Amino acid sequence: xxxxxxxxxxxxxxxxxxxxxxxxxxxxxxxxxxxxxxxxxxxxxxxxxxxxxxxxxxxxxxxxxxxxxxxxxxxxxxxxxx
Amino acid sequence: xxxxxxxxxxxxxxxxxxxxxxxxxxxxxxxxxxxxxxxxxxxxxxxxxxxxxxxxxxxxxxxxxxxxxxxxxxxxxxxxxxxxxxxxxxxxxxxxxxxxxxxxxxxxxxxxxxxx
Lengths: 82, 116
Hints:
Radius of gyration of chain A: 14 Å
Order of helices and strands of chain B: HHHHHH
Oligomer: heterodimer
Distance between the termini of chain A: 13 Å
Helix content of chain A: 55-70%
Largest sheet of chain B: none
Structural class of chain A: mainly alpha
């Protein structure tokens, strides 16, 4: 059972900052994964995470496969369920 | 895993990423250096001179920073999911298909049978 609600970018009652950030994710990545919608409960943290992720993972000088081996190698070592 | 497939990683490389020690002959030397580093860093093992040298053999210092922080971001997000028990996206599960190359741990509060 998840402990956080997922922010719905289409919900007019959702935080406008979070909605704007999730809209940008949708535009850039084509979909809004639950991880972003969950972190969207703290829009300032989500904004920082997106900037950091862009620099470290999405726009680095490694090949996509090398980046993914770094990310996935850590996730598997941590036994992450997600 | 979906992202891994999208980058062109083979099913074999995905399936063996958790096997310790890493099998010989499956990963290219640069890939093996990344995976060994990612594991050691995540487990808070010492980053030995040998391990660091294996990264330097294939990557610039700037790239090693990128690898270090990609591993760090994964650790941060992994702890987020462990704390908040985030559900895996339905469309991600659909894209993954019936067979996941890596044996997943049970979801929080679930059992191993939930992720055969």
